[in-house]
């Protein structure tokens, strides 16, 4: 069987099973299993495939047919140009969240202290620190998530990042220039309408924003001022329809200069505000 044949067969199987982006997913798994780049494939697509790699590739395809996300199958995801380990104890880093990091970087200096609330895999905290030189503290309630974050800190050599187990601000001391968060924000009732890969594979703890999806935003808006330095700011990723509600929470808690940033699809993605 040639490289082209095995890739095309896998793509057809995924497509027939209704897997979104079947071609892309098949390629990612093929590339990992056979150790081939796009250039390698174009040169050798009609060559006989390495039979020794077929069992691993087949097992990867079977997992994808079972709706396990590609990132969990491969055990890694890419965010802001860095590689992060991921498993089903952490949310898979999303491209949309890069909007949050990019916005925070506009206001960050290398002597800043930043708090990343609900850090998960640590991708936000680590990316912010590596790209700005700032000292970042990542916080999560999940020990299993923090184990992943700690590993990602090591593999990315993020020496200025520290991870802390805490239920939101419960175990947090000190003052920060900026607070950033991508909290769970999906209303409980909406979770069951999500695609299988999300609702059945990603951690519920990282998805569930409780009744109206605003549970964690209320805590952030009400408590963050105690941990912000003068002229400190808060940056939060939001769901597409939550901008006005989150904005009002910040106004209610005396934040000023509040702004909403859209993602590349034109959807509201980040709300930020400042304490003078």
Automatic annotation (TrEMBL):
<comment type="function">
    <text>Methylates the class 1 translation termination release factors RF1/PrfA and RF2/PrfB on the glutamine residue of the universally conserved GGQ motif.</text>
</comment>
<dbReference type="InterPro" id="IPR050320">
    <property type="entry name" value="N5-glutamine_MTase"/>
</dbReference>
<dbReference type="Pfam" id="PF05175">
    <property type="entry name" value="MTS"/>
</dbReference>
<comment type="similarity">
    <text>Belongs to the protein N5-glutamine methyltransferase family. PrmC subfamily.</text>
</comment>
<dbReference type="InterPro" id="IPR040758">
    <property type="entry name" value="PrmC_N"/>
</dbReference>
<dbReference type="InterPro" id="IPR019874">
    <property type="entry name" value="RF_methyltr_PrmC"/>
</dbReference>
<dbReference type="InterPro" id="IPR004556">
    <property type="entry name" value="HemK-like"/>
</dbReference>
<dbReference type="InterPro" id="IPR029063">
    <property type="entry name" value="SAM-dependent_MTases_sf"/>
</dbReference>
<feature type="domain" description="Release factor glutamine methyltransferase N-terminal">
    <location>
        <begin position="5"/>
        <end position="75"/>
    </location>
</feature>
<feature type="binding site">
    <location>
        <position position="182"/>
    </location>
    <ligand>
        <name>S-adenosyl-L-methionine</name>
    </ligand>
</feature>
<dbReference type="GO" id="GO:0003676">
    <property type="term" value="F:nucleic acid binding"/>
</dbReference>
<keyword id="KW-0949">S-adenosyl-L-methionine</keyword>
<dbReference type="InterPro" id="IPR002052">
    <property type="entry name" value="DNA_methylase_N6_adenine_CS"/>
</dbReference>
<feature type="binding site">
    <location>
        <position position="140"/>
    </location>
    <ligand>
        <name>S-adenosyl-L-methionine</name>
    </ligand>
</feature>
<keyword id="KW-0489">Methyltransferase</keyword>
<keyword id="KW-0808">Transferase</keyword>
<dbReference type="GO" id="GO:0032259">
    <property type="term" value="P:methylation"/>
</dbReference>
<dbReference type="Pfam" id="PF17827">
    <property type="entry name" value="PrmC_N"/>
</dbReference>
<protein>
    <recommendedName>
        <fullName>Release factor glutamine methyltransferase</fullName>
        <ecNumber>2.1.1.297</ecNumber>
    </recommendedName>
</protein>
<feature type="domain" description="Methyltransferase small">
    <location>
        <begin position="97"/>
        <end position="189"/>
    </location>
</feature>
<dbReference type="GO" id="GO:0102559">
    <property type="term" value="F:peptide chain release factor N(5)-glutamine methyltransferase activity"/>
</dbReference>
<dbReference type="InterPro" id="IPR007848">
    <property type="entry name" value="Small_mtfrase_dom"/>
</dbReference>
<feature type="binding site">
    <location>
        <begin position="182"/>
        <end position="185"/>
    </location>
    <ligand>
        <name>substrate</name>
    </ligand>
</feature>
